[in-house]
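Students often ask why we bother predicting the structure of a whole assembly rather than each chain alone. The short answer is interfaces. A chain on its own may look different once its partners are present, and contacts between molecules only exist in the joint model. In this exercise we take two input lines together and write out one structure for the complete complex. Read the inputs first and try to guess which parts will touch.
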Amino acid sequence: MTQVAEKTSSFLTALERRPQGGPRWLEDLRSRGAAKFTALGIPTVRDEEWRFTNAAPLAAIEFAPAEPISGAAERLNGFAYTDAPLRLVVVNGRFDTTLSRTKGLPSGIHAGSLATALKENPDVVQRYFGQLADFTTRSFTALNTAFVQDGAFVHVPEGAIFEEPIHVIFVSGADASTTMSHPRTLIVAGAGAQARIIESYIGAAGATYFTNAVSEVFVGDNAGVDHYKVQQESLDAFHIGSLHVHTSRSSRFSSHSFALGGKWVRNDATALLDGEGGDCTLNGLYLADRERLIDNHTTIDHAKPHNGSHEVYKGILGGTSRAVFNGKIIVRQDAQKTDAKQTNRALLLSDEASINTKPQLEIFADDVKCTHGAAIGQLDDEAIFYLRARGLTYADARDMLIHAFAAQVLDGVQVEPLRVALEITLFDQLAKDLAEVDGAAASGARKS
Amino acid sequence: MLDIRNLQVKADDKEILKGIDLHVNAGEVHAIMGPNGSGKSTLARALSGHPEYVVTGGQILFEGKDLLEMDPDTRAREGVFMAFQYPVEIAGVNNAYFLKAALNAKRKHHGQTELDAMEFMQLVNEKSALLDIDKSMLSRAVNEGFSGGEKKRNEIFQMALLEPKLAVLDETDSGLDIDALKLVADGVNAMRSPERAFVVVTHYQRLLNYIVPDFVHVLSGGRIVKSGGKELAHELEAKGYSWIDAA
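Now the answer. The structure tokens for the assembled complex follow.
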């Protein structure tokens, strides 16, 4: 116990200065979050959910709660699709009215500050907030809950079809000290509603900070939500993000998660398919180089019959980077006629890069279709030779195959300007990584 | 055009070719025949520069240049084309995109301007009409989900677009029914010209009814044991390969 207390001391100190105010239920929730985090501490590798991801580097740094920062407008520059016509900008966990653009919103659709919604839409917020983001076993969700203050709130009411993407941009970081923020997102789509939401996490290059985000998405009966997460944190940042989704009868939910930044990254995506006849897609693409770590844990919980779920996670790893993929699919006794498919692939560009991958199927129904497959490896030598035999250089052949590998996830992005921006960002970053690989190979060749 | 001198090749640490001499002039079609394991495909793959086939001795000159000094991609850009026995399926890479990149890599190599999308499509239309090829193949991923016949036709289509000086067909007839075989042969025949040479590797004489060679060479035990005109192929068909081995 002393060890836990020691490791979490800076967080415990911060907890004493956690936000106050708001409705009574929220005060209670924060207190329970604080108590739970204090009891759980920071997970160790003895915890099954953290077996391959050591949180010690995070615990070793003293993070102070982030203060508001000024002049944040230029901090949006250079990140994917930050020029979206509809955007909610949250800086260090606080909604920034000046940077946000909500003019094009039709009446009835709410998109804005969570703190404001607590005052103006107290019923909706209280009904949904915290219902999915269970923190009884999750330390960092407990920590986030203890710090709830502001973030983004999107409510698309019953029957409203809204196709224009709403881009929620979380800006993190400070000019000097190492800071942490705990942004929170609540998305509610009523029955028959339709919405597209992008969550981006960004920070200034080279800044060391900790973003600990929690998002909850409720998809009503026959509603559809397309969700995108674009993580472009500083390459020295720590990022923990958990997405919690609840679907209902005949609802459709799709998530595309792009993890391009961060030094130490943990994503948890959990979908509870809680109505009959729905469809859920969880896709992800991550890029790691240097000594970075990217951990994706996903859970698709089939609680009701006739749900389809599709999952494709792909990673491209260079340098001495590490990745973890844990894909859990639960099919409850009730969930007959489940059709679940999971694919996990990783491309290792260097001999020192590695991944720990684990599919986890827990099936309690007897009339279901569940498939999973994992493929980890290098590029296919025969494919490279085939392309070279037609005149493409080795580098061009390799790049073509890597782009094709990423395209399967990128092509699922329905928001055209976002997809284009992601392609450019991803391929630029890859070009740099590959130049490094080529440089290392060339110097290796000289040595030998 | 192609001058192979005393070529020795190892694969899997096993000596396969034990001294091949072959001289091919522009405009000629040479058929390489032989029983399984004689080294026919090894010869084709060594010409294309496949990394698993290690040349341990001898020389290959292509238009007077040392082919063995060139990377596989340089060979291709210089004008050597190999139609694969087993074309590789490449998921996610669009066929047209790939072909345009390959063609432009070659054009750049020869100091020609690269084709834009319009010019490329024009060329595609021209070539697909010439070869009677269904263009829908172009919008699919390279060879992915193609039938055996489609894969081989795609190889011939690539050859038509890239217009090589020397085309090496590595058992292009294997696994094809007679209709598909005829289509492939028609494609090759349409491309025959006084400036272009073909090396056709095949196990069966059947293909040579449609692609009529100028010379036939029989490979056995890693050596050319017999050379002759097109009538040699018929003789092999009638008597089988054991006749050669016995001789």
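Check your guess against this: The first strand of chain A starts at residue 64 and ends at 65.
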